[in-house]
Design goal:
Blueprint lengths: L2 H14 L12 H14 L7 E3 L1 H4 L2 H9 L4 E3 L15
Parallel strand pairs: 1-2
């Protein structure tokens, strides 16, 4: 995305996120981030790869939300984070 497009999207998100706007964002950083991704998708904007820090990487709901949306992602996690293998169906 070009710098102008990023500023335009950021400006629109800032406007839509105000209390005076009819659009109500969910409370909290993770629901807001997922809402923002959904809103961008309605504009035909989808990241090739989403990158997030450990604050979001440690949140299972955020990771699940990205997977449910089919978004490729790279997330930082804390050293104590455990991963569980997904059971493969035969």
């Amino acid at each position: 995305m070009s710098g102008a497009m990023v500023r335009s999207v950021y400006g629109a998100m800032s406007t839509l996120g105000t209390r005076s706007s009819p659009r109500r964002w969910q409370v909290g950083a993770v629901p807001f981030a997922l809402d923002m991704l959904d809103w961008l998708a309605t504009l035909g904007l989808r990241p090739a790869v989403l990158v997030a820090d450990a604050g979001h990487g440690a949140n299972a709901d955020f990771r699940r939300g990205l997977e449910n949306r089919g978004l490729a992602h790279v997330l930082q996690v804390k050293g104590g984070t455990t991963a569980h293998a997904v059971a493969l169906s035969s």
